Amino acid sequence: SSPHLVQVRERIRINGQPISKDLFNKYFWLVYNRLEETKDPAHASMPAYFRFLTIMAFHVFLQEKVDLAVVEVGIGGTYDCTNIIRAPVVCGVSSLGIDHTSILGDTMEKIAWQKGGIFKPGVPAFTVAQPERPLEVLRERAQERECPLYLCPELDDFEEGCQGLELGLAGAHQRSNAALALQLARTWLQRRGCQGLGELKEVPPSTELLGRPVPLAPAFQLTDAMIQGLRDTEWLGRTQVLSHGPVTWYLDGAHTTSSIQACVRWFRQAALNQDKPHDGSEVRVLLFNATGDRDTAALLKLLVPCHFDYAVFCPNFTEVSVANNADQQNFNVTLENALTRCLENQRTWTRLLEEKVGQDPWLPSPLR
C-alpha cells in the first residue's frame, strides 16, 4: 500500500472517515491553485506528492475546524515535511525498525536519531520498549531538545484489576501500539482538562536504564471509551482476514524484518495452528510484493518456515480495474522495473528453498 489501500482520500480523515470526494476536490484545487499562483518564478516547481498532500491535510483540518489532528510522519521525522508543527500536544515513537535506509541511515541508531527529530521543547513524548542503543539515542535527542521522554508501561499493567483488554487489531505486536495510544490519548485529555480519567497506578522504583533515568509513565485505570476504542479499532490491510468463497486471504503490510516476524507469528496463530489436510484440498500460497530499496531477501527468508505450497511475486500495478481507479497508479516506477523486481524476488525465493534456510524460531518443529 502507498499507504492508502484504495483511494487517496484515506490519507485525510475526519472522525475516522476519509473526507468526501467533493471535499477532496474542493480543497485539492484550492491548495493547488494557491501554490501555482504564489510559487517562485525562478524555481518554478510544485511540492512533491506527499508534501502536497501534507499541506492539503493541514489546510483541510484548519478549514474544517477539527479539535484534534493526529499526524503521522511520512519518513523519519527530523526532515519530514510533517515536522513543521512547532508545538504539538504530545509526540509518540512506536517500535523502531530498519526501513528507508537510503534516507534514514542503515542502523537502528541512525533511524532513532531521525525519529527523535519530532521532539519539541516542553512537549511530552512517549516511546515503547526499544533496544538499548536506539533508546539511548532517543533519550539523548530528548535531552538536547529539552523534551520530557517517557517509556510506556506494558499493556499488562493496564489490565490489573480488570478483564484482559480486547484489541480490534490482531497480533501480539499491537499490544505495544495500544499502550502507546493510551498514553497519547490521556495526555491530550489531560490537556483539555477532562475529569474522571482514572487513577494513576504506582510506578515501580526500578525505572532507570544504564544508570540514566528514563521515567516509566504510570499506567492508569482505563475509561469505558478507551476500552471500546481499543476493541473497535480497524486497520484494513493489516493482520486482516478476508474470506472470499473457497479462498481465505491473510493480508498484512509488513515491510521490515521486525514487522515480517510479527506478521509470521500472527499468521501462524491465525492460519497454521490447524493441521493441513493431506488430500490436496488445501494449498497455501504466498502472494508477495515489495517496493523501494528494501532488502527483500531478508524479508523472504523469514517467510520460508511458513511452508507455502506456491509463491506468486507480483507488482502493485493493477492492469484491469473494475473501478478504473486512478488512485492506484504509480508514476515513480515503470512496469518494466517492477516486473524485473518480481523476477529477482522469484529467484531469491527459489534459492532460499534450495538452501533450506529459515530455521523456525516460533515452533519447536516445522509444520508438515
Automatic annotation (TrEMBL):
InterPro entries for the chain: Folylpolyglutamate_synth, Folylpolyglutamate_synth_CS, Mur-like_cat_sf, Mur_ligase_C_dom_sf
Record-listed E.C. numbers: 6.3.2.17
One GO molecular-function entry: tetrahydrofolylpolyglutamate synthase activity
Gene3D superfamilies associated with the record: Mur ligase, C-terminal domain (3.90.190.20), Mur-like, catalytic domain (3.40.1190.10)
Record keywords: ATP-binding, Ligase, Magnesium, Metal-binding, Nucleotide-binding, One-carbon metabolism
One CC-aspect GO term: mitochondrion
Name recorded for this polypeptide: tetrahydrofolate synthase
Source organism (scientific name): Sitta europaea
